[in-house]
Amino acid sequence: MTNHDLLNIAKTYGDPVYVYDSEKIIAQFNRLTNAFSGVKKLKLNYAAKALSNITILKLMNSLGSGLDTVSIQEVQLGLLAGFKPENIIFTPNGVSLEEIEEAAKLGVRINIDNLSILEQFGSKFPKVPVCIRINPHVMAGGNSNISVGHIDSKFGISIHQIPHLLRIVELTQMHINGIHMHTGSDILDIDVFLYASEILFETAKNFKELDFIDFGSGFKVPYKEGDIETNIEELGSKLTEKFNAFCKEYGKELTLAFEPGKFLVSEAGQFLAKVNVVKQTTSTVFASIDSGFNHLIRPMLYGSYHQIENISNPEGRERYYSVVGYICETDTFASNRRITEISEGDILTFKNAGAYCFTMASNYNSRFRPAEVLWHKGEAVLIRERETLEDIIKNQVDVKNLFSKKEKATAK
Ligand SMILES: Cc1ncc(COP(=O)(O)O)c(C=O)c1O
C-alpha cells in the first residue's frame, strides 16, 4: 500500500480513518505458524479484543485461526463471524457466573481464572470441560498496565493455590481440559515464556485429562524501523523442544495454543488524520489533528509509541513537532518528533494502529468514531462506516415534558 493509496483512502472515506492491510495479517499468521511447525497440534486463537471488526474476524476464521474472547459480546461476534463454538475460547476476568454460563450454553470453551467461580461452575456443570488460567507469578510486560502475570495481579489462579484448586476439582468431579497463562503484553524476552512454560508443565502434571496448554500471548512487535521485537523463530524452536518433551512425558499429544492479538494485527494497521492547525508557541510547534484520545488512546493510556509520518509531504525537510489532538484535556500523541514539514491540511499516518486502537475508541466529546477500511488484494474495502449523529443519539431517551418551564424559578 503506497502513500498515494492511503491519501486516496482518506479522500474517499474521509478522515480520520483506520486502514488495515490483510496481507500483513496473513503474513504474521503464517510466520507464527511456521515458527511452531515442529509441534504436531498447534492452535492460534486470535485475541478479538485487539481488533474486533467482523471482517477481520472472518479473515482470521478463513486462516484457520480460533478466537480468544473476554466478553459474551465478543463470543457472540465470533459466532456471527462464522467461528464454530469449539473454536472459540472464553477467557474472561472477574465476570459473573451468569456470563460464563451463557458462554457455556453457546458451546464455546471455558477458561476460568478464579477459585470462587471455578467451584460454583464445577458444582453446577461438572460435565462441562474447563481450562484454568494460572498466574505463574512472573513479572513481564512493557508497562505496568499490561503486566498481568505477577503476584499482585488480579489475573489467574496463583500457583500457590494449586492444592485448593485440586480439592475443588476432586470434590466437584469436574473435567479440566486445558491449562492457560497470559503474563503480559510487549514481552521481549523469550526466557519469560520459557521459564513460565516450566511452571505450566509442572502444574499440568496434576491433571490427567488435558487436551491443550495455552501459553497466552504478549509478543512484542517493532514500533519503528530497526526496533527490537520478540524473536518468534527462536521462541518457536526452543518452546517446541520443551513442549514435545513434555507431551512425551505426559503420554499424550497435547495441543499447543497461543492467543495473539498485537502480533497479528498491530503492524497491519494505520490511522490517518488530517492536520487542522500548525501552531507555533514560544517553546514548540504543535500539529493539531482532527482526532484525539477518543480515537487513539494508547499513547496517553500507556505511553505507547506510534511512528508518525506526513504522507502529504514525505520528501520535505524534517522539523520537530508535538502532535496533539483536539480533546479538551491534554492529548499528546508525540512530543518533539521529527516529521517532514507539516502544512495545515496534510494527512499524517500513525503506524502500528491495528491493535487496541479502534477497539478502544470512544465517543468522548460526542465525536464520531472513524471509518475502517481493509486494504485487500490491492483494493480498499470499507468495513465500517464513520458514525453519524444518529449513532450518538441512538440509545438516548429524549423524555418529553420532563422539565417544566418553571424549573429554574423553583430550584433552591
Ligand atoms: C488473556 C489474554 N490473552 C491474549 C491477549 C493478547 O495479547 P497481545 O495483544 O499482547 O498478543 C491479551 C491481551 O491483553 C489477554 O489479556
From TrEMBL:
**Binding locations of substrate:** 298, 302, 329, 356
Give the species.
Answer: Cellulophaga algicola (strain DSM 14237 / IC166 / ACAM 630)
Q: Which UniProt keywords apply?
A: Amino-acid biosynthesis, Decarboxylase, Lyase, Lysine biosynthesis, Pyridoxal phosphate
Q: What is this protein called?
A: Diaminopimelate decarboxylase
User: What EC number(s) has UniProt assigned to this enzyme?
Assistant: 4.1.1.20
Family matches, as PANTHER family: DIAMINOPIMELATE DECARBOXYLASE (PTHR43727), GROUP IV DECARBOXYLASE (PTHR43727:SF2)
Q: Name the catalytic site residues.
A: 328
Q: What does this protein do?
A: Specifically catalyzes the decarboxylation of meso-diaminopimelate (meso-DAP) to L-lysine.
Q: In which pathway does it act?
A: Amino-acid biosynthesis; L-lysine biosynthesis via DAP pathway; L-lysine from DL-2,6-diaminopimelate: step 1/1
